[in-house]
Amino acid sequence: MARRSRGIQGWLMMLLLTAIVISGCSAKTETSVQQEDAKKSTSVETEASNGETRVVKDEFGEVTIPVHPQRIAGIYVEDYLKALDITPVVQWYHPTWGVQDYLKLDAPKFDMTGSIEALLQYNPDLIIVDGGVDAAQYEQYSKVAPTYRLPESVLQDSNEVLTTIADIVGQPEKGEAFKEQFKQKIADAKAKLQQTIGNETVAVVRLNVADKGLALFGVKNRYTGFIYSDLGLTPHPLARDMKEYQEILSEEAIPSLDADHIIVFPSNGTWDSPENQEAIHMLDGKLWQSLPAVKNKHVYMMERSHWQSGAVIANSMKIDDLLEKMTP
Predict the structure, then answer these.
(1) Element spanning 74, H or E
(2) Residue 74 near residue 128 (C-beta atoms within 8 A)
(3) What is the distance between the alpha carbons of residues 124 and 108, in angstroms, rounded to a whole number?
(4) At residue 224, does pLDDT exceed 50?
(5) What CA–CA distance (Å, rounded) separates 91 from 57?
(6) Which residues, in sequence order, are bridge partners of residue 75?
């Protein structure tokens, strides 16, 4: 009887062990399935996120763009992309004007004078273009990738351009952060410039090296107008009353440029470029040398690259130039 009892106990023990093993295997299998399902779910979500699109309105109508673009070509708006910590797949290039050297981009050149189809090899998933692109060119870009043309209504204000591009690339928070920092920089610079030069007049002049002439930039100029509107510098009356973005100064008009301070930069290349030296010699002429700013050593020879751009990084660099040249 005792042996039978021990046999039953042994049999029950084996049943219990078997149940535990089966339960463990079942739990392990269920966990594995859940983990695999989670992986699949994450993969599906990632694919959906990468392929997600939205419809936005640009200058020429509605366009469907990626929600999270990864390979962006910003034609002449590379400055704004860099401000958002984005490296474009190409950088704007012109055989005469070169690239925007001040950005120091590590990106292949896209020749603006060549075929737009050359962009195909860089496989952009979004192209952003500025006001220099007309409807016909826009259609050509759109054949390469979804293309967003900045609205004319924002082009005059670099902050609005930054906000628009930040939204288009899906990074509005970075745009706002840059704007806040830039706003503070402008406020600080404005206060310092007011202390040092006050209401003394300022003029911005470009030396056109090809025709050895001078172009005066007005208060509406997209490249330099912000030094008056945002930094509070006082424009010389010729610049203040100008209706156009810029006007060519005749030789006879040079003496009328009696601004207290003159900013000047070459149209192409640098002050050291050999091909510019003949044009630069015109600044040795009697008419230029007779100007009050020249006599008082208040002529500031700036570098062309960022002074011929009105984008946010370029404007930040202009502020640095002005503080260096005009404040103690």
Answers:
(1) strand 72-75
(2) yes
(3) 13
(4) yes
(5) 25
(6) 129
Q: Are 176 and 168 in contact (CB under 8 A)?
A: no
Compute the residue count for the chain.
328
Distances (CA, A) of 208 to 37, 205, 268, 277: 66, 9, 8, 12
Q: Is 310 exposed, middle or buried (0-12, 13-18, 19+ CB in 10 A)?
A: buried
Note whether 217 and 318 are within 8 A (CB): no
State the SS3 of 208-270: ECCCCEEEEECCCCCCCCHHHHCCCCEECHHHHCCCCCEEEECHHHHHHCCCCEEEEEECCCC
Contact criterion met (CB below 8 Å) for 293 and 326: no
> In Å, how far are 239, 250, 318, 328 from 195, measured between CA atoms?
22, 34, 18, 10
Least confidently predicted of 21-35, 44-58, 212-226, 239-253:
21-35
Its pTM stands at 0.83
Helix (H) or strand (E) holding 39: helix 2-51
Least confident of 22-36, 65-79, 124-138, 241-255: 22-36
DSSP helix/strand/coil, 112: coil
Q: Tokens for 77, please give them.
A: 């708006």
